[in-house]
Structure formats: C-alpha cells, structure tokens
Design brief:
186 residues, alpha+beta, two-stranded antiparallel ribbon, elongated
Length: 186
C-alpha cells in the first residue's frame, strides 16, 4: 500500500475513535468564540476587472471594511414567520385597495369616453369635451369672453344656431365645464 493511502487510512481509522465528549467540547469551543470574527475581503484590480479575494493581492494590502452582520434575536419574542405573514397580508390588502381604486377610475373613464363618443355622434356638446371637438360640432364661436372666479380662469364661447338658439359653452383648464342653451324669444 503506498504511503499516501496508508496515511489516509490512518486518519480515517482515527476518526472512528472520536468520542462524543470530544465533539461536545468542540461545539462549546466554537460557541465561545467571539461572534464578531469575520473573514477578511480584499479588493484586487486585475487589468480593468475588479476581483474580490480572501487573500491579499499584494504585500501591504488592507482588507475592505465590511458592514456589521445583522443579528436577528432568537426566542419567543421574535415571531419572524408571524411578522412576515402579517406584512404579506398588509401588502395584499394594500394591493387589493389599489386595484379597486384603479378599477373604479377605469369604469369612470370608460363611462366618460362613452358619453363623449355618443355626444360626438349626436352633435351635442357635453362636459369634458375639448375646444377642437366643440368647434367640429358648432364651428367658430360668435363671441368669446374670458373671466375668473374662485375656481380659476375660464373662457365662455357663445354660438347662435340656425333656429336662433343661443348656446354658451364654458371651458376651464382646456375642457368644457358647463353648457347652457337658450331658445330665442319670438
């Protein structure tokens, strides 16, 4: 048997003779070692590549400062699984609320779009229309007046229909906010 194989066999035979008391002493020794012992990490520059190593790259190299490890307390006061489940529940509830809010806004937008589409088809001016849409329906206004109130500046366009009906369309922030029609007096 070669020398290397005999040495390996001797080590293996020796391992069979390890007593449970030796294992206990080893565990106690490991537990008594300071918890702040950390591996050292060195930053090395190899050409244009940065490499990290557990060995110094060159003589006199200093290890990189490492952040302190996060220590999670053990014991009955640390219910990490319960905390994680509560956080997941809160996140799911928040997501459900956001989804419901988005869906409500979506339904409102769709209703407004449908209202505007129907108004364009019937040639009616409704709240929410833009100035270009009003021009397509009524043409150029006969009178344009501007003013300001507690809600801010506004602009009112007046139209006279072929039947003498007067329509006043008020815009705020670039959209129709009010429509008033008056029949002509005969």
């Amino acid at each position: 048997m070669p020398l290397q194989n005999r040495a390996a066999a001797t080590i293996i035979k020796g391992m069979n003779r390890v007593s449970p008391l030796s294992i206990l002493y080893g565990c106690l020794l490991a537990a008594l070692l300071p918890a702040s012992v950390q591996a050292q990490v060195y930053r090395c520059q190899q050409g244009e590549v940065t490499v990290f190593s557990d060995r110094p790259c060159e003589a006199g190299a200093k290890p990189e400062p490492l952040p302190q490890p996060v220590i999670v307390p053990a014991g009955p006061s640390a219910d990490l699984l319960g905390e994680a489940e509560k956080a997941a529940q809160r996140s799911a509830e928040r997501q459900a609320d956001e989804n419901a809010e988005w869906h409500e806004g979506y339904k409102t937008r769709k209703q407004q779009e449908e209202k505007l589409r129907n108004a364009r088809v019937t040639g009616t001016v409704v709240e929410g229309m833009r100035p270009a849409e009003v021009r397509r329906i009524h043409g150029e206004p006969t009178v344009v007046s501007q003013g300001s109130n507690s809600k801010g500046p506004y602009e009112t366009w007046s139209f006279v229909g072929s039947d003498g009906t007067r329509t006043h369309v008020t815009f705020s922030n670039g959209v129709v906010t009010a429509v008033r029609s008056r029949s002509s007096r005969k």
